[in-house]
Amino acid sequence: MGDAREVVTASGWWAGQTGSGTWLMTPQGMAALLRRHRAAVVVMLIMAAGIGYYLKHAAPGYADTATVAFVAPADQSDLFNFADSLIVIDALAADSVMAPNGHQQVTSAGGTAAYHVALVNLSDEDYPNYSDPYVTVTTTSGDAAAAQQTMTVVMDVLQRELDSIQARGGSPRDMWIRLHTIAAPSGAIAQTGSRTRVLAGTAALAVIAAFMALTFLDRHRVRLPDLLMRHAPLRGAARTGR
Whose CB among 190, 191, 216, 235 lies 3.0–4.6 Å from 61's, allowing a Cys bridge? Predict the structure, then answer.
């Protein structure tokens, strides 16, 4: 810190050095640091207040979720031992809905929210387990009505894609796999999370960022009045040039 460190230590703003040579700041030193950079503190407080206001009043996102199973006709269930065939069709249909053509169908039918169709993983990402022929359909949007509308559209497209895959494969209609809803669409649920935790985390980050910025300004002796005085001659010259 050079000369600045000598001034600081002489005035008692720092408590002393650790074994690694790092200076520790006392509460009095922190208060003095804030006083020396009042203008910067005011600017940071205004910015933190603005961010906090935005987080507090921002509209929550909405999500609608449903789970469907792929099931064989009752009189043909013996053809699908261990559900292997069901899982194959399950994956094909889910991929078809998520493909560009599926997205186009959803959009054309009035779906405006983001959506995701995926096989239900009974384990984790490292050791996935897709042993059951289930898919989860999720729509998300900042508008509750859009999330619900898109859910209806995606479910219809999923059914059409399933029928199309089986028709192209030449499967007799009486042997077609069908969809069975396990968990009906939940409806648009606000994804608010814990705003208290978000605001507390934002405040903590703001304090850390503020002290880092003030320490930088203190080391480089950058003060708002100095900057204004430094640029005053330039503004005067500009007015004279006119």
Answer: 191
